[in-house]
Amino acid sequence: MELSKRGIISNFDRKRPSVKFSYVVCYVVAIGVAISTLYPLLWVFFGSLKEAKEIFYVPPTLLPRTFLWENYLRAWQFYAIPKVFRNTLVIYAGFVGVRLLSLSAAAYALAHMRLPCRRGIYMLFLATLMLPFFAYLIPSYLIIFRLGLLDSFWAVCLPAGADSYSLLLLKNYFDGIPGEIFESARIDGASELLVLRKIVLPLAKPIIAVLGIFAFIHVWRDFVWQRIVLPSAHKWTVSIALWYHSLGNQGAVLPQNVQLAAMLISTLPPMIIFLIFQRYIIEGVSFTGLKG
Amino acid sequence: MVVSRKTSVVVLLVSLTVLLLVSLFPVKAANQITLKVVIGPDTEDNRAQNLVTLEKIKRFEAANPGIVCRPVPFTYTTRQDFFIKQASRTAPDVLDVWATECELLASRNWIIPLDDYIKTWDKADWVIPSAYAPFRYNGKIYGIPFAGYVKHVIYNKRMFRENGVPEPTLDWTWEDFLNAAVKCTDKEKGIAGFAPMTKGGEGGWALTDFIYQAGGECEVYENGKWKAVFDSPEAVTALQFLKDLKWKYDVLPANWSNGWTDVYNIFGSEKVAMVFDADWGRNVAINGQGMDPNDIGVAIMPKGPGPKGRHMGVQGGNFYVINALSTPEVQDAAWKWLTFELWDEEDIKALAASAADYRAQKQYRAQFEYIPLKPDSPYIKAREEVFAQNSDVLLSWGSEEFLMKLPETAHIEPPIEAQVLYAQFLAPVVQAVLSDKNADPAKLLKDANARFQKEYLDHVN
Amino acid sequence: MIEVKTRHLEQMSIPPVKPVGYVVRKNFSRYGMGLAFLVPAFIFYAIFQWAPIIYNFFLAFQNYIPGLPAKWVGWANFRRVLGDSLLPIAIKNTLAFTGWALLIGFVVPIITAITITELRKGRSFFRLAVYMPNIIPAIALYVMWLYLFNPAVGLLNQILNFFHIPSSEWLLSPKTALVSLVMMSTWANFGSTAVLYMASLSSISEELYEAAEIDGAGVWKRIRHITLPALKPTILILLLMQLIFTIQVLQEPMVMTGGGPNNATMTVMYMVYNYAFVYAEFGKAGALGILLFIFLMVLSLVYVKANKLVEKEAR
Fold this sequence. Notes:
The structure holds three protein chains of three kinds.
Chain A: H1 11-14, H2 17-49, H3 70-78, H4 81-112, H5 118-126, H6 137-146, H7 154-157, H8 164-175, H9 179-187, H10 192-203, H11 205-221, H12 224-229, H13 238-248, H14 256-285
Helix pairs in contact in A: 2-14, 3-14, 4-8, 4-11, 9-10, 11-14, 13-14
Chain B: H1 2-23, E1 34-39, H2 47-63, E2 68-73, H3 79-87, E3 94-98, H4 102-107, H5 115-119, E4 136-137, E5 140-141, E6 144-150, E7 152-156, H6 157-162, H7 174-184, E8 192-194, H8 200-214, E9 219-222, E10 225-228, H9 233-247, H10 260-268, E11 272-277, H11 281-288, E12 296-299, E13 313-322, H12 328-339, H13 345-360, H14 378-389, H15 400-405, E14 410-411, H16 418-435, H17 441-460
Parallel strand pairs in B: 1-2, 8-11, 13-14
Antiparallel strand pairs in B: 3-13, 4-5, 6-13, 7-11, 7-12, 9-10
Helix pairs in contact in B: 8-9, 8-16, 9-16, 10-11, 13-14, 16-17
Chain C: H1 2-11, H2 29-59, E1 62-63, E2 71-72, H3 76-82, H4 86-118, H5 123-131, H6 138-149, H7 155-162, H8 177-202, H9 206-214, H10 219-247, H11 251-256, H12 268-277, H13 282-314
Helix pairs in contact in C: 2-13, 3-13, 4-8, 4-10, 8-10, 10-13, 12-13
């Protein structure tokens, strides 16, 4: 779906030679950017198909001498890909559920309900936006431990309920919806829950899609927190498995070609998600208030 | 209606706060002897080892009624995991750690002295007394050595042969070492003569080998005070040597920034002729990169120049320690676990069984290990037999002379803040001379020495 | 959906409706429902955000050894942290990293977004290409880039050699290590920023461009007077978010360089990490963490202020 019929340059402009030239420049830039992001991945892809020793050839080769597809099979087994994919997806479901329940209610209240010192409360929430996460690792861990959540998926899901960046996006979004809609519904005698269900949620679909995708990418990328709260290997996520077998386990005997294969396998699910939902990302983001 | 809603919200908020506060208080320990023991993370590659551990637990529980073992997935590869587990008191009651960790763990009262246990131990006089050295702290012994090493050189025999380099002898020097490195280097093919560790704490660790070889020290205890002395002329010689390897002789890999694993990956892919190894490095080369074990030779460290020069490498290994946070009863149980089947027949059986596993998986038991026992102890003899019977997969390293000579080249690690010294003071110095042609080794060491003295040792004194 | 969007656009000029005089009225029942909606978030924030902050505040004044009772030591931790000879280096590196990251990571997404939005064909392909690095798990990113940076067998020097430029040492030289990390981090993150800009761009109304064109404004003039001003609120918010994000840089140097060579990539956050998780000096980590938190709080106030300014301007 194209979002606008025209941009800065109009059809008329395009007929002018100087503009024609800059239009070509646009394509060159775009192709350049695309090459700079995709070519390294292609290089890594070829590396993942090489023999272990060929990776260290000087001068390096682009194409592998023989295409060793079994590297992918080894990576698939060694990193226990099906298991870690499943774990990560289960965590994601909980993660996004907790986050949306907690924060959309709060953001809606902050935007459209009667509250004492609304600004103060909002600031109290937002103050943690700048929290240097690593400085708080030990206290956070101790709390998880005291709650008895260690080695449970909840240890990753529950902290998702407090995220200032998502709250900020949600509140900005709700601020953008005219308050009259809710007011008139309330006057008609609808309860807050009914307003929430019948009016707010349908309107909030785009922002929910955006937060859902952001959350997916977060769960897929994060490793520091997951690693300390999920010590048992049968609970491991994608990131923990990648970390453990490639960086964490000193004396790992896994050759680099297999490691690279695993890295590429791990990027597939988020890529598929992006391909399916990219429309929502672009559209949804334009609803978040970060707009002109 | 109005009141109840208001009240309910207030009550809810208050009760949540109270709940939060209550949840922060410590959980009371159960009143039974549960012993937390180490097990590897349950990954595919650990499966065989973990099954062995679980079997051992069964036997231990049968032999010691009243003690229940709880396996805790744990490895001491990053300290972070241990700190976090200590904080929540979920760390194992008995665990194995590296030789460097004594001061960190003992000075923080995280582990207990074992002297009283050792007195009652039937195998106490099997152990070579000097093997305790890295875990002596304030006159007490805090750890039981079970596998030791002294760092030495491993080299690619094939490359030596092809380049006409003589095999290292027991009295080889830096000159011979350099000569070998120069001859094996072939920059066109991306082959280097020698690859030191330079990244992170390993970089500092690797420099100390050269410092000791040149006759220098890192820390000395004088008049009741600790003094940093790695600005000595000997230490400068050592750093200058490392610098020359890069800039004067150009025998290091183009990508000289390597950590522990990297170095052995390069060695295994036959892109470097010599590396220093302690124990497990060659395992990466052999089982990871598929290097032929017959191509790997071992030699003691080369001797530094001048009258103070000596053959010397860092001594280290693994030690069993007992967690000080455990209750005395649990500590007693931990000692029982620690000594259970240690250097016993079961150990020998397990070793023989492992040989079959290695054979089935087409792998080798590649690591170099010093069993810190006197040569005439029964275990050593039985072990040698198993190794001889399974020499196709259980690799043993070096000649008789090499093994006799190696202990003489042992040097313990700096007793105070070794990891800080390595990572924060020595590694940057190493990286400075390797990345900057004009770096001044004497000045760099002098500066680092003064800062380490002021910021760390002075706080200990 | 389109209907909602236009409504939303109209709303930009009208301040959100606020109930008036609620503070004076003592009738709490008015707030009951609103507060109830806040309860879940309150719980999560209390447990996972506020409690750790408070806990960390105490930590900074204690000598804390995990598992053992903590001892109060007053300001000693702060004194030792401020006396650490590494701190000035780390601050310098952190600021340099932030500066470079903003310089590169701020301009590149805008240009990319404008360019790609202008394209008539293949827009979704380029969008994917740009966003691609952003979805790679952090660990995978580091492992891949260690391979790409390798001076002997890595891709980057191959490219330089192709153009007959002398090879670079990348992560190995103190001169280039930090910039190399910025490069990698920009590569990995610019996609998400660019996508946000693209979204902003697509919501600029076509009539504005039509009108400008009729008035005879050329392409550059349209960019200067319509596109960039329209992007301003996004730019301002993203600039500050990037600032705060990059100041906390830790994982990249930790995994890629270990802070080296010769401390060239040692950052403040990395020092915090080392204090706590390598040297078990949790008090010192707490102290430096608090200093960093205060610094970031000041930044966040600036952020909120700037946000308000933009809001006012937009009205």
